[in-house]
Design brief:
Largest sheet: 7 strands, mixed
Strand order of the largest sheet: 11-10-9-12-13-15-14
Number of domains: 4
Shape: elongated
CATH class of the largest domain: Alpha Beta
Helix content: 10-25%
Structural class: alpha/beta
CATH topology of the largest domain: Rossmann fold
Low-confidence stretches: 1-27, 542-548
């Protein structure tokens, strides 16, 4: 009789158990043709062990082993070069996100698929768990939403219908509509409406909240969905609800949309005990602004923060990239002038202006992510003096000599112009700055250095310069944004052979002819690294035009 060791028994059992059923563990190979970077999934709570991540590829279970990076060997279905990857995960214990991507495989090469972000071609499915809102909280939500006769109330994620039923029965709403992705909950909602005798004023339907495109008939929307789904609902709430409509959310915010009111309450929960809850209220306004992000100010310059004015009235607070404001145009006008002053980085200030025509009884949208061609941006880099050692290196790189006409755009205190004339023999130096005080200082410095006759300084916005044909050298220290704006006038009006030197910053996609790293003494008498770029204007043949 054959004797089995304990090890052999364990191995045999492992093989038997591992080889049967669809839930069998698929071990990751040492290498494979598909690499998946997966978002973390929260460990399940004790009362719901089923809330764990799941991974399938073309319908086959690859859930095990659970880890953030998986490398697998997969074969597409016959006639295809792609696989469908579905990852179901829990970013928190109450929200399930099902993310799908179709990944095209490459022969003899591992393909990396990043699941950290949603695929726009395969939108996420977001399913918050159902947990009934306590009746006392339902009542407070209705109060906060000021539900009354004539209101049409929507509850997105209606569960058993209790918010819709109460809105109609106790608060007199004209109509209540409940939407839920779960058919059994919609069925329960309808049963409760029958029981409470409000079927004529209520409607319940099975629908994915993410497929709702229009809420224009609602005057109140109630939510208890979670952060992820609330944020996804933000566009349809802001863009399709009418001005004056109210949105009330139990516990969760709505993306970066700041609530008009937040309220903490202490009421009876579903287990008969007192508990703290938080409610948030938003009232839809008539103007929706999408604003660029503004950098946090450095500690030494706290004044470098965004500012928003509408018809000269301050609407700066609360700051955010999505702002809803209620505005009234001046008498006799149907438009408002919106000015947004922001800092895309800590050294560049952009002032963007749009005149926005308001729509009656509708939300008007204004997108400030791009410049308005009818109201060009004002771009103001901060003034920081170029160290004198760097000034000299810029003049050397440009090859400044007798007979040259040198322009410094953003001249500050005039040091580049003065050095170009006094030390390098330039025939003429012209300094331009938007800051009239700096222009005044430049003139004083030129007089002090005995070069006032060979120099000229003027207060002007760099973006208003239309012709630089007089110059054969242009010096810049403006920043990425203003450099890029200067590119057309540099390329189109400077003569062939003219040189452009920029301290630190490139000029859009225009490739420099030379880039040089230098070490020089800074304004604090310390050695520091600097970068200079040189462009030489070429003859306008077809090749060079193509590069431009």
């Amino acid at each position: 009789m054959r004797r089995w060791t304990m090890t052999a028994v364990v191995v045999a059992l492992g093989l038997l158990l591992g080889g049967c059923g669809e839930a069998a563990r698929v071990a990751d190979p040492g290498d494979g043709n598909l690499i998946l970077d997966l978002p973390e999934s929260e460990p399940p709570p004790r009362h719901a062990p089923e809330r764990v991540s799941k991974l399938t590829i073309d319908g086959k279970d690859y859930t095990e082993q659970r880890k953030a990076r998986r490398q697998l060997q997969v074969e597409p279905k016959e006639g295809s070069d792609s696989v469908k990857v579905v990852y179901s995960f829990w970013p928190n214990t109450y929200t399930n996100i099902i993310r799908t991507k179709v990944v095209k495989l490459q022969k003899g090469k591992a393909v990396v698929a990043d699941f950290s972000k949603e695929d726009k071609d395969h939108p996420d499915q977001i399913k918050p768990i159902y947990f009934p809102t306590p009746e006392a909280v339902v009542r407070e939500m209705c109060k906060m939403g000021k539900i009354s006769k004539g209101d049409v109330v929507y509850d997105i994620g209606c569960g058993d219908g209790r918010l819709v039923v109460m809105a109609v029965k106790e608060f007199g709403a004209k109509k209540g509509i409940g939407i839920d992705i779960e058919p059994h909950l919609v069925k329960k909602s309808k049963e409760n409406a029958v029981k409470e005798k409000v079927t004529d004023q209520t409607e319940f339907k099975v629908e994915d909240a993410l497929k709702i495109k229009d809420l224009s008939d609602a005057s109140v929307v109630l939510l208890y969905l979670g952060d992820f789904l609330n944020e996804k609902m933000q566009p349809v709430l802001q863009k399709t609800l009418k001005p004056g409509a109210r949105v009330v959310s139990h516990r969760f915010h709505i993306g970066d949309w700041k609530p008009d009111q937040s309220q903490k309450i202490n009421v009876i929960n579903n287990y008969g005990k007192k508990e703290d809850y938080e409610l948030h209220l938003w009232t839809v306004k008539n103007l929706l602004l999408t604003l660029p992000e503004s950098s946090e100010p450095p500690d030494y310059a706290p004044e470098r923060v965004s500012k928003l004015t509408i018809d000269d009235k301050d609407f700066t607070e609360p700051r955010g990239t999505s702002r809803m404001v209620q505005v009234e145009p001046k008498a006799g006008s149907d438009s408002v002038k919106v000015v947004y002053n922001f800092w895309p980085n800590t050294y560049t200030n952009i002032i963007r202006t749009k005149v926005v025509k308001l729509q009656k009884d509708k939300v008007t949208e204004a997108d400030f992510s791009k410049e308005d061609k009818d109201h060009p941006d004002l771009i103001k880099p901060i003034y920081f003096p170029t160290p004198i050692a760097v000034v000299r290196e810029m003049c050397k790189m440009a090859g400044i000599k007798k007979g040259d006409v040198v322009y410094d755009i953003g001249c500050g205190d005039g040091r580049l112009v003065i050095t170009a004339v006094k030390e390098f023999g330039a025939k003429k130096g012209v300094g331009i700055d938007i800051n009239a005080d700096l222009v005044k200082e430049s003139k004083k410095n030129a007089e002090k250095e005995g070069v006032s006759k060979q120099t000229e300084f003027k207060a002007q916005n760099a973006l208003e310069i239309k012709d630089l044909s007089e110059a054969n050298v242009v010096l810049l220290y403006l920043g990425d944004f203003l450099n890029e704006k200067m590119r057309p006038v540099l390329q189109k009006t400077l003569k062939p052979g003219s040189r452009v030197v920029s301290h630190r910053f490139l000029i859009g996609e225009w490739k420099p002819d030379e880039t040089k790293k230098i070490k020089a003494i800074n304004n604090y008498d310390e050695e520091e690294d600097y970068v200079l770029h040189l462009w030489t204007i070429k003859k306008p043949d077809a090749t060079e035009k193509g590069k431009e």
